[in-house]
Amino acid sequence: MSSGTASAAAAPLLETRNLGVRFGGLQALEGVDLAVQAGEIFGLLGPNGAGKTTLFNLISGVTPAGSGAVLWRGGAIHGLDPNRIARLGIARTFQNLRLFQSLSCRDNVLVGLHRQARLPWPDALLGTPRARRHHHHLQEQAQGLLELLEIGPLGDQPAAGLSYGDRRRLEIARALANAPQLLLLDEPAAGMNPTEKEELRHLIRRLRDRFDLTVLIIEHHVPLMLGLCDRLAVLNFGRRIALGTPDAVRNDPAVIEAYLGGQA
Amino acid sequence: MDALLIDASLLQQMLIGALLGISVYLPLRCGQLSLATPGFYAIGGTLAALLSTRVDALGGAEPVYPLSSVLLEMLLAAALAGGLAVGIGRVVLRLRGVYLAIATIALVEILRVTTLNQESLGGAVGIFGIPQPFLDPQGYALFTLIALALVCWLCDRLERQRLGRAMEAIRDDELAAACQGIDTDRTKLVAFVLSAVVAAITGVISAHFLNSWNARLGNFDASITTLAFVVFGGSRTWAGPVIGGLTLTALPELLRPIGDLRLIVFGLVILVGPLLLPQGLITPERLRLIRGLLHRGAKP
Amino acid sequence: MQDLTQLLLNGLSTGAVYALFALGYTLVFSVLGVINFAHGAVFTLGAYFTYFLIGGAAGANGLLAGLQLPFALPFWLALPLAGLGAAAVALLIERTAFAPLRQRNADPLLALITSLGAGVVLVNLIQLLVGAESYAIPTGALAGLPAAVRIGGAQVRSVQLLLLLVAAVLLTLLTLWIDGTRSGKGLRAVSEDPTTARLLGIPSDRMIQIAFGLSGFLAGIAGGLVGLSVSIAGPYFGIGYGLKGLGVLVLGGLGSVPGAVLGGLIIGLAEACVPADLSGYRDVVAYGFLFVVLLVRPQGLLGRVLPSKV
C-alpha cells in the first residue's frame, strides 16, 4: 500500500483519523485515515455502498461520527453542526442533488453567498445607498458564478426546471459561492455525457487554480478520476483499501481485485 | 352613514385578519407549520385588556383613551410575546412537520384553559369595558391600516435580504441550507419570534376594537382560520397572507345573504382551495407577471 | 376503596373513548403520514346517527325540524349502524380531501387544511340540518339494563360499563384483524413501507380506504357511546375530543395501535385523578402530557424512530 506524499508536507488541510460510523447493524465506515493536503485534487473511488458519501456526510457534519476524529487545519471539527462546518470553509454538493427547488438559479447562488451577504440591519431595513451597492455587488457575484459554470443565461429560471447536467453545475456554483477552501464534490459527473464529463474535468482543474481550492471528489467514472486527481483513496466495505497517485492505485492488486476488476 | 359604519367595522376585521395571516406566514416561510398565532394574539389581547382596565395611569378613565397608551401596550405585548417565543421556540422548533403543528395546538389550548380558569385574567366571563382610543370604526381601521402597512413594508424588506432568502432555503431543504452556512435553528427562531410579536400587537388592537376580551378569542378555531388565510393566499410572499386574510375574513360577511349556508361555503373554500391552487393565490411568479403587465400598461 | 373503584372506572371508560378515537387518527396516519382533522366531525356524526336511529326526533331549529325516522331501532343495533354510516362519511372525506392531493403529488401537509375544510363543512351541515341545540339519547335506549350496578361498593353507571366493554371488544377485534388476516397484514405493510408494499402487489389505495373506513367506524361508535353517556352537546362537540385525541395520539406514538390504546387509558385515568376543585384544569392534562412527551420522546411511548435518509 502506498503512502503517497502525505507524510512529507506540513499539517494537512483536512484529516480523518480512525473515522467510523455504524448504522444499525451495518458498519458503514471503519477506521478510515485520510490526509488531504491544501491545493490537491483528492479522489475517492469505490463501489456502491463502499462508504464514500457517508464519509462526506461525516466531514460536513450531516451525520455525526461514531468513532474517530475529523481534523480541519489540525483542530477537531466532528460534532459541529453542518452550518458551523460550512462557515469554516468546507462546501459540498450532494449526490442526489439538493437544490432549492422553488428558488431561481440566481437565488440558489445568493443563498450560497449567505455568509458574505451580511449587512448592518439599519442599512438593510432602510435600503440605503450602501445597501443598494451591496445588493448590486451580490447580484454581480452570483451572475459571475453562474457564468463561470456556463449557466449564465439561466439566472431567472426556477432551479426545478433545469436539465440534469445544469443542476449539477448549479450545485457547484452554489458551493463555490460559500467561498470554500475545501470543496467536496459528490458524483458531479453523474448523468453527464462523455463530452460534458471531459469539460467537467477541465472545469474542476480551472476552479482549483482560480479559487485556490482543495477538492475532494467522489466519482464512479474511473478514467475521469485517474486523469483528474493528484491522489486517490479507494474504499471498499467502509475501509480504505488503497491510497496513492493514480498510477499507484491503478496497479494496486487490492484495488484491481476489489473494484477495477476487468475494467482497468 | 349607517352602511358606512358597518363597512369600516368589516374593514377593521379584514385588516386584523391580514395581520394574523402574516403572523402564520412568517414561520411557514421557513417551512415551520406553527399554529401558535392565536396563543400570542390572546396574550396581546389579554395584556391590553388588563392594563387598560386596571392601570389608571394609562388613562382608562378619560373619555378618549390616549393613543400613546395603546402604543405602550403594543410595545409591552411585543416584548412579552417575543420573550416567551424565544423560550418556547427553542424547545418546540426542534419538532418537525405535523409534530410542531400538534405541539403548538397544545400550547394554544393550555393557554386558553389557563386563562379560562384564572379569575385574574378574566376567567370564563372575560374582561369588559376596555377603553376606546377611537370613537368610531373608521379611526380603528385607519390605525390598523397603518400598522399593517408598516408590517408589510418590513416583510418586503425582509424578503429581499439574506434572512428572507435563508428562510426560503430552509423551507425548500433544511439540510442543504445548513450546508450553505445558514444557522437554521436561529433563523427558524427569528421567524417564530417575529410571528409572535405580530400576533401580540394585533391582539392589542383587537382588544380595544372589540371592547371586551375573553379566552375564546384565542382558540383552536382561530388557529385553523388563520392557517386557512395563508394556505388560500399563498405562503411564499407576504402578499399571500394579506390577500388571504382580507378575503377570507370578508367572505362570511359577503356570504351573509345566503344565511346559514355561508359557513359551509367557507369550509368548501378551505377544502377546494389547496386542490385548485396548491401554492396559494399569490406566488412570487404571479406577482412578477402582474408587475410586468402594470409596467407595460404604464408606458404604452 | 369505593372512591378508588369509582375513579378507576371513570378513568378507564373515558380513556376507552379516547383510545377508540385516537385509533382512528392512528390508522390514517399509519398509511398516509398525515392527520385527518375531520375525524372529530365523523365522531360527532356517529352520535347524531345513533340518536336518530333509535328513533330520536330533530329539534325545532334546522331544516329537518321535527323529523323522525319511521322506525326506532334498539341501541345495540343502532350503534353499529351508526358506525357504518360514519365509516361511509370517512370514505367520502378520503375521496374529497385526501385522494385529489395524492393524485397531484401535493405537499402532504396540505391534507391538514383540506381535511379541516371537510370538517368545517360537516359540522356546519349538521348545524344547518338539525340546529345547534344539544340532544340527549334517552338512557331508556338500554332497555332491560339497570341504570347502575354496584361493584365493590361503588355505584357504577351501566353506560360506563357498556362503554368499556364495547371498546375492549373493538380493540381486541382490531388487533386480531391486523395480526391475523391478509388485509390486516397488508395494512401494516403499507404503513411500514408504501413503496415496497406496492411492489409486492399490495394495493395501497385499497389499504388507505380500509384505514379510513375503519377509522370512521371506530369514531362513529365512540360518538354514539359518548352521546349516550353524556348527551350530544351540539355540532361542535367532537372538536374537543378531536384535540384531545391528538394528545393521545402523540403520547402513544403516531401510527402505533397499542400506543393509542395505552395513551388513551393513561390520559383518561390522569384526568379522572384531577381533584374536583381543580376540575377546570382537567382539559390541560392531555395537552400537558402531549407537550412533555413531544419534547422528551417525540416518537411517543410506543412509536418507532423513522430513519432519515440523506
Largest interface: B-C, 41 and 46 residues
**SSE topology string of chain C:** HHHHEEHHHHHHH
Gyration radius over CA of chain C = 19 Å
Q: Which structural class should the secondary elements of chain C be placed in?
A: mainly alpha
Q: What does the largest sheet of chain A look like? A: 6 strands, mixed
- Total helical elements of chain C: 11
Task: Please give the alpha-carbon distance between the first and last residues of chain C.
Answer: 56 Å
Q: Indicate the proportion of strand residues of chain A.
A: 15-25%
Taken together, the total number of domains of chain C comes to 1
In DSSP terms, counting alpha (H) and pi (I) runs of 4 or more, how many helices of chain A? 10
Helix content of chain A: 25-40%
Give the uncertain stretches of chain A in residue-range form. 1-8
Q: What is the gyration radius of chain A calculated from CA atoms?
A: 19 Å
The count of DSSP E runs of length 2 or more, i.e. the number of strands of chain C, is 2
Describe the sheet with the most strands of chain C: 2 strands, antiparallel
Oligomer: heterotrimer
Rounded average pLDDT of chain A: 88
The percentage helix of chain C is 55-70%
Q: What is the general shape of chain C?
A: globular
Structural class of chain A: alpha/beta
Descriptive report:
The complex is a heterotrimer of chains A (264), B (300) and C (310). With 264 residues, chain A is an alpha/beta fold. Chain A contains 10 helices and 10 strands. In chain A, 38% of the residues lie in helices and 22% in strands. In chain A, strand 7, helix 7 (194-211) and strand 8 (214-218) form a beta-alpha-beta unit. Chain B is globular and about 55 Å long. The N and C termini of chain B lie far apart (41 Å). Chain B has one domain (7-218). Chain C is mainly alpha-helical and 310 residues long. Chain C has one domain. Chain C is 68% helix and 3% strand. In chain C, helix 2 runs antiparallel to helix 3 (75-103), helix 3 crosses helix 4 and helix 9 (237-252) runs parallel beside helix 11. Chain C starts with a helix and ends in a 14-residue tail after the last helix. Chains in contact: A-B, A-C, B-C. The interface between B and C is large, with 41 and 46 residues.
